[in-house]
Amino acid sequence: MTNINISSSNISLFLASLIAVFVLSNPAFAQEDQCPEYAVYHTTTPQRPATSDKYLFSEELKALEPKDADVILLGDSLTQSWKTKDLLKKLPGLKVLNLGVGADRTQQVIWRLNQMNLKDYDPKFVVLWIGTNNLRTDPGCAISEGIIKILSILRDNWQDSKVIVIETPPRGMDFSAYMPQRLEMYDAAKEKYADQDVVFINVDDVLTCGGMRVFSDEYREQRKVYRKVASPCPTYKNDLLHLTKDAYVIISDILADIVLDK
Fold first, then answer.
1. Is residue 95 part of a domain?
2. pLDDT grade, residue 15 (50/70/90)?
3. 3-state secondary structure of 163
4. For a Cys staple, 163 with which of 7, 158, 198, 204, CB 3.0–4.6 Å?
């Protein structure tokens, strides 16, 4: 018989994931005044990357230069896809380090920060863009607690840095996918860090081309037949999740206004 070794931590994380999915599908649980402890455990407990290639990439990030970057980016595929060379054009004279990893959730960012020697870095600005991958399994209140955990690590290690949180943009048909969780996922974090040097940026209006009005009846019919249909909004790719170069230009301009204090 083949022996299968499963660590208790992996079992706990698996059970937390199942419970979180159960919570999202049961309105009675979602209406609790307090965020379920098991959901918070899921989003705040450090977790290794889900695949071996992501793990390898995480290891490679430790050696990525420049260590003396003025601006450090943290997050998921939305962050990883942000081309450093394009951002540098908006931030003349500054050094940028992109540490975004596709498929990351809050728990992977926490794990990664714990694996790095943060004292090797001294950024003036830290940009955090995380949470869209948590939406599939976690309630908004728990995602917010995961973001709070990340922010606490950043504030403990980089006290002099200004932290800029880009809120997860809308996604899906009518830009309404996971709407309840998405609208809630920054509430607790905003309240906790209201008086600290943390800035929250909402990009909903500047990215969504007028919101659900952009989804014509013709587009809806095509979407039913074909898997890949050109996005009706030039800032979104066909999957209505990832962003185009046009979108990154918009977000880079917003970031530059803050970093360069325009």
1. yes
2. low
3. strand
4. 198
- Taking the C-alpha atoms of residue 188 and residue 139, their distance in angstroms, rounded to an integer, is 13
Number of domains composing the chain: 1
CA proximity to 146, closest of 4, 39, 70, 73: 39
Does residue 104 belong to any structural domain of this protein? Answer: yes
Inside any domain, residue 115? yes
23 SS3 class = helix
Q: In this predicted model, what pLDDT tens digit does every residue of 173-185 receive, in sequence order?
A: 999 999 999 999 9
What is the residue-wise DSSP string for 38-95?
HHHHHHHS----SSHHHHHHHHHHTT-S-TT-SEEEEESHHHHTS-HHHHHHHSTT--
Q: What is the dihedral of CA 87, 258, 80, 65, to 10 degrees?
A: 70
Record the pTM: 0.87
User: Per-residue pLDDT tens for 115-134?
Assistant: 999 999 999 999 999 999 99
Q: Is residue 2 part of a domain?
A: no
For residue 251 the two structure tokens come to 């977000």
